[in-house]
Design goal:
Elements lengths: L1 H25 L9 H23 L4 H4 L4 H29 L14 H21 L8 H26 L6 H30 L3 E9 L3 E8 L12 E6 L9 E4 L9 E6 L16 E8 L12 E7 L3 H14 L4 E8 L8 H7 L4 E8 L9 E2 L4 H7 L7 E6 L2 H13 L7 E3 L6
Parallel strand pairs: 7-8, 7-11, 8-9, 9-10, 11-12
Antiparallel strand pairs: 1-2, 1-6, 2-5, 3-4, 3-6
């Protein structure tokens, strides 16, 4: 409830930022009306620009603003809002195309006015931005390169759209209305400067070094980082950070990973599986490599649920990393609430941290269930996928305030979430990670 209340002013602020330009445009003086469809088209266009501009704030990683929601939720929201912004911009164009095609003027420059060409370029950039974001993996776009192009297309789309608005002058010709868009444009540019200049500069002053790297089952690696000349950072079990290895933070070559170490003590540890463009080379990281850590972020943590009487953790593959942070922290705190962990893997030998979880049993009320998709002939445990029957057998019967954490492939977390709800677990007690960015 506390976090829900904290989300209200941030939600209201977002709605105000999106709505304010439209409200200002309706203040006098207003141009003479040119009909319902014309005014609707103008409203759609201005709405698209307002939505596009505020997108920069959603991805700026302000800790206080993201805390009530979880930054993974904000990025998920960012994705859908981008699709909505594209829809508004395209509707703005299509309404004019159908009802007043003469207003679009010639398509090709130099016959077309430059501000009209700017509007078309903005629409094409926004379309390319959404397509390459939704289908990055299918298009085989390397993550780091895509991030750079993503930022460039976003900035370009907004600047060309502002040029289009200024050149058209309709509903924005008065000084106050033009200053509204100038102010918004300046704020967006300041956000870009903060993200690309100020924040990397702050990270540059707080470096880490890789002090150990060890192999884990299932083609995974655990990196240990020690702070260099500063006290490090504090995080909550289950949270994550953006990690840069061997590069300046100005290079924009960072990737999100969950902490796998205890939040109570010791150095920072990240457990990373060889899955994507960057992660394939993690195992070759030399000891002593400089690293930068931007975090912590995320609301995927048991510390937000002090009233829980037990926990269920369902992990697929390397999804066990944030769960391991929770278990190690619980052990260091002397936690006595029941914890059930379901680990799904293709083979027994792929199960990360299986041996350490056995070692933690005497220190915790810990129950571990391994679900193996390709079991050996002598395997006697659960097999196949994490089904509703597996969950039913694992759920503590006596629990009334069970809290569940899910982390793994999207298909698995979606299925487990549905099955838990079928078994009577309220949605508010089911939490899962939404990131698929590496």
């Amino acid at each position: 409830m506390r976090h829900s209340i904290a989300a209200v002013p941030w939600t209201a602020g977002y709605l105000a930022l999106v709505s304010l330009p439209l409200i200002v445009l309706l203040l006098p003086p207003t141009p003479p009306g040119l009909g319902l469809w014309w005014d609707l088209s103008m409203g759609l266009g201005f709405g698209a620009l307002a939505v596009m501009g505020v997108q920069f704030g959603l991805t700026a990683r302000f800790k206080r603003a993201s805390a009530p929601f979880g930054i993974d939720i904000l990025y998920y929201f960012h994705r859908w809002v981008a699709i909505g912004g594209l829809g508004l911009a395209f509707a703005h164009f299509m309404v004019l195309r159908v009802t007043n095609p003469a207003a679009l003027m010639p398509i090709m420059p130099p016959a077309a006015p430059w501000h009209m060409t700017a509007g078309r370029v903005a629409l094409l950039l926004l379309f390319a931005l959404v397509v390459t974001s939704l289908w990055r993996k299918q298009l085989r776009l390397e993550y780091d390169r895509w991030r750079i192009w993503h930022a460039a297309m976003a900035v370009g789309a907004v600047l060309f759209a502002v040029w289009h608005v200024a050149g058209t002058g309709y509903y924005s010709g008065s000084r106050m209305k033009m200053w509204t868009w100038i102010g918004y444009s300046a704020a967006w540019l300041m956000l870009i400067v903060y993200v690309r200049v100020v924040k990397p500069w702050l990270l540059l002053r707080r470096p880490y070094h890789v002090t150990d790297i060890r192999p884990e089952p299932g083609q995974a690696w655990t990196l240990t980082l020690e702070p260099d000349g500063h006290e490090g950072l504090r995080f909550l079990p289950g949270q994550f950070a953006w990690l840069s290895l061997g590069r300046s933070p100005f290079a924009a070559r960072e990737h999100p990973f969950s902490f796998s170490s205890s939040a109570q003590q010791g150095p920072l540890e990240f457990t990373i599986k060889e899955l994507g463009d960057f992660t394939r080379t993690v195992g070759a990281t030399p000891i002593g490599t400089v690293a930068y850590v931007d975090g912590p972020f995320g609301s995927f943590t048991p510390d937000r649920h002090p009233s829980a009487d037990s926990f269920l953790m369902v992990a697929g593959g390397v999804g066990i990393a944030p769960m391991m942070s929770m278990l190690r922290t619980f052990a260091d705190r002397g936690e006595r609430r029941r914890v059930t962990v379901i680990c799904a893997n293709d083979r027994v030998q792929d199960a990360i941290f299986a041996a350490e979880m056995e070692e933690l049993r005497p220190r915790l009320d810990l129950h571990v269930v391994h679900v193996i998709r390709e079991p050996a002939p002598d395997w006697t445990g659960e097999t196949g996928l994490v089904t509703i029957d597996v969950l039913r057998r694992a759920l503590p019967v006596e629990s009334t305030r069970l809290v569940c954490f899910l982390c793994g492939p999207e298909a698995m977390t979606d299925a487990v979430q549905r099955d838990l709800r079928t078994l009577g677990v309220p949605l508010r007690r089911i939490h899962f990670e939404l990131f698929d960015m590496v």
